[in-house]
UniProtKB/TrEMBL annotation:
Gene3D superfamilies named among the record's database cross-references: Periplasmic binding protein-like II, Winged helix-like DNA-binding domain superfamily/Winged helix DNA-binding domain
Domain HTH lysR-type span(s) in chain numbering: 1-58
Pfam families: HTH_1, LysR_substrate
UniProt-recorded name of the protein: LysR family transcriptional regulator
Keywords: DNA-binding, Transcription, Transcription regulation
Amino acid sequence: MTLQQLRYITTVADTGTITEAAKKLYISQPSLTNAIHELEKEMGLTIFNRTNKGIFISREGEEFLGYARQVLEQTTILEDKYKKNGGGKKQFCVSTQHYSFAVNAFVDLVKKYGQEEYDFSLRETQTYKLIEDVAQMRSEIGILFLNDFNEKVIRKILKSSDLEFHLLFVAEPHVFISRQHPLAKKKIITNEELADYPYLSYEQGEHNSFYFSEEIFSSFERKKNIRVSDRATLFNLLIGLNGYTVCSGIIDQKLNGEDIIAVPLADEGDMRIGYVTHRKGMISRLGETYLEALKKYITGEQSV
């Protein structure tokens, strides 16, 4: 077993096809296929199931890929620390719920380490997929929130996935609304006042449970509900339909525009926002830099 073979299988898993993986790795498809077969034969397992519709990761392959990513991550950390050339092309991936401060911290990271060659990924994704990304070590860090409603369920999933939650800060509930919204001039807003306006939230795919929602008070019954998959659509609907969403209150005008404001919500509760990491992994220098940038944006230095 070689590091090259581990890079091969993780690339195939990430791209989903032998063809795309071969292009990304700059090798021929037969060479890639043979390397994978040799590794499977040596390890005595089937990593990928081959069908007429393509390849799929087997159950034992998922476990093996988790260890493979761990080995590659530790190798990168060693190279980054001891190689004079910095270990070649730098790689880093973070998965997050939809937070502007997570994007801003990523921008800072790229500006600091984005030299001639790098391969960074920022995944604003669904909560379950975020946890899955970190569990399978596709992402080094995942950013999400806990509260009294979802904490027991989320922590159970984190524990079963060998993940740890690290608290960053506690946020009081706010609503994002348009600056032109009829309630925009109020110093505090109640859920009763919002009852006639569309409630916007991020859809969670097949795991569309209240426990995986990115919005606090997700289990509240509302007359008008719209689910979206990305930040730009949500903000456009906030403006176009006088909609609202419930959030942490941290907003960046440079990123989200000046037409969206955050107003405190009257209901009691909090969002304990933090990051998750794999218990068997180590935070790389890139990861440490990203976390430092995150803390900068959530301790008063962010644009609000």
